[in-house]
Design a protein that fits this description.
Elements: E1 7-14, H1 17-25, H2 27-34, E2 36-39, E3 47-52, E4 59-69, E5 73-78, E6 90-99, E7 102-110, H3 115-138
Antiparallel strand pairs: 1-7, 2-3, 3-4, 4-5, 5-6, 6-7
Helix pairs in contact: 2-3
Length: 150
Amino acid sequence: MDNKPKIDYVIYVEGTPERVWQALTDPGLTAAYWGHSNVSDWQEGSAWEHRRTNGSGIADVVGTVVASQPPRRLVTTWADPGERGGTEPSQVSFVIEPYNGIIRLTVTHENLADEAERDEAARGWAAVLSNLKSLIETGHVLSARPWEMP
């Protein structure tokens, strides 16, 4: 994974580690701010899916829980469910660090295929994490889906 593109994204959220963990792992909350439900039992070695919320049950991303240390650290692999063999999945790490009533959430997405995928992931994470921050701090998501902004 060392030579492939990666991104590090950091946000600061007013909240608790438990609330941020819940926002990352609760299917209902992820559906609210991400437009997909993250579904798993969140145990190391378990599968997880990033399912559409339109009732189709289609997973746009699948992976495995690599590390699960609630409420401080979550690591998952990310892959297109249609890809079979030969392609190593990317990996996403969420590190939740409390400090005086705020949280530093660091998201690292590594082992990306190329710079184009890195740029797409960077835009996506900025939008999704802005919506997560809004939900945790205000109780509601942004008034429009930020990832749809041209």
